[in-house]
What does this fold into?
Amino acid sequence: MQNTITPAHQSFMESEFKRLSALIFEEPENVRPFFVVNEVMEKTIQITSGKQEVVLQARSNGELTAALYCFFEHCGIHFGFSEELVTRREKLESPPLLDLELIPSMLRRGIRMHLNFVQDQSFFTEAEFTSYIDRIASMKWNFLLFHMYNNQEWYPFSYRGMRHLTQKLGNLDNQPLPDDMIGRERIRTKRIWYPAEFESIEDPEALLIAVHGRYLRMMERAKARGMTIAASIEPEDISEVFEQTILAWSNEEQKREKSNNLSSDWQQGWSGKKTAEVDTLNPIMLDLAVERCMQLYAAYPCLDELHLISREGTSYLAKSESAYLSELNRLSDSLGVLFSDDFILQLRQINTDDAAINPKAYPYWTVLPGENQFATFIGALRYLEFASKILNDERMQVLAKKVTLVVSLYSPNPNTIRLVNQYAGEIIPAGVRFDILGDYGARDISTQLDEWTALLAKKANVGVISWLEFDGNMDLAQNWTRGIFDNISKAAQKNIDTIYFNHWRVRGLEQNAKIAAQTCFDVQSGYDTIMNRYAADVFGKDCAPLMRKAAELLELATELCKQKLYNIGFTGDWVYRYATDPPGYREEDLQLVRGLFDEAESAYLALAASCETKGQREAVYLAMQCSISGAHLNMVSTLQRVKHEMIRLNIWQQEAGEESLPDEKTLETLLAQGKKALLYAETYQRSYAKFVETCDEQGELAHYQLGVIQPLEQLVSRLKAMRDIRARKE
It folds into this structure.
């Protein structure tokens, strides 16, 4: 027997067992625990208890933590995303008689932290961040990934004497929050929304040191709970300052074909800034990527895995089909794969989806209606080529002895993934896991898994990146529980043993998170059992039918919103600036989804009226989220009417002179509609503000203020000014 429990993990297990025992046993000091990590035991987890002894055994430190919480679940504690609940009415005299042998459904199961929005963990206080790690450990998750976006790579980095000090925390650009904003008293920072301890840090190097130190402490905390710790970077993406320097170093400006590039228009339009365009074939890019990996590991030596992931929707745009075919020939020679004539025909297939949808709000940004598959397929293969070169570098081979290296592809288009997976198994180096983020939303990932047959036939080591929420719905209530269960179930059927989930918020995702965590651990129990157990723990044993009805209505609204109203709930001013451009969202779709949110709100209120006291707060909270979701959709519907009429009149964001203004009556009508849109947004903000407590909620409140309310206030002010000008003239 090999007992490899670490001292830090042993200390954690002892203190946590003592804390939980005090909640559940009449005489906790008399209950004796024994913890064993045995790497060669037959089953993954063994739990034996009775009289006054509890013996927990597992193959790894992470699974020993899962055994601890599994035992206390059997004793009557519910471990949730935002709180733990004791479900027993009376304490136990002694541990229950248990003799369990368990094999979790997923070997690696956990969370991928985006670390790029003001609702996520990067904006938590340190106390809230540590609590978050403790909660996900208690839900039996054993994997935690820190994704370091370009310009958000929080570790000391230098290359050829240049230092990486251009990091940007969050996406509000340090905009000040007005003193009179609705809910300002709920936000505990003084001027801007920021991590509370970092608000006063203005020096970029000091901020880098502070954030790096925090992430390192969080990794070590998660490690002490037995979790596998990973970090990821986007090697094909670099900051503008490095782009210009590389061009100077290599004289690449004269060498590359200007009509070909590596990004789609949406990437630049969405971010509002230029996307760096250095060719991944440039040898300096390869050297830079390797150095980024080396210095990332040096900064976080507790890492178990280091991931290379493509940038979102990576693509390669060329001036003609002949240029695409030329690049395919080069890739064929470079990668040792052959593209048949039939496969080329598949790449020529045109996306014939509904072209009447505004392209800036189209579900799959990388392949718009009227486009073929060349750009996204070639872009993905170029990335896999680049990632393989990075892994084959001698320095990375040495690093691979210390940390597991993983290649991930983020290409949110099902057809692209289907095409890539026909070859990815031959391209990814042997022994390297290939993780795929192939769509937005758990339901869509689940549907897509049927197209992974070719890949799974060639490569056994594959992981799934899925979702607890979709950021295009971020301002809205979301339920994905059935989609999440189906996603995990289908992955398990295909012998995939790694799945981890994107999310930003915590509050409001309790159902999604708990169903995901429990299904990863025990998919065999089935959806009904897992959902009913959650309903009993949180709302009371007789409330499952009411809870299930509400959840089903909200899931239907969630999925239809993603399908028909893509990105309508995106944070920031995306909806104001882009998604509502003509033709905008269809009014019939807005009303359909709004009706479902109304029904879901009523169902959650009925649940609140019937459930036990402990669950009323959660049911009322979800009813509120459904209500404000409807207010947001009404805001968008009203905004569109104003915006489209102003565009028709050529006064939307144009400096209109007196002579080009419409008549006073028209302006009065537009102003009334603008005020109505603002009123809907203020209703959203006012209702939400009543519930705001946690850092993710504070971030959401700040984001809605700056991304929705502030632009609408500016619109109303502009319309007032136009009306007054016209009134004076008449």
In short: Residues 613-648 form the longest helix (36 residues). Confidence is low (pLDDT under 50) at residues 270-274. The chain is about 50% helix and 10% strand.
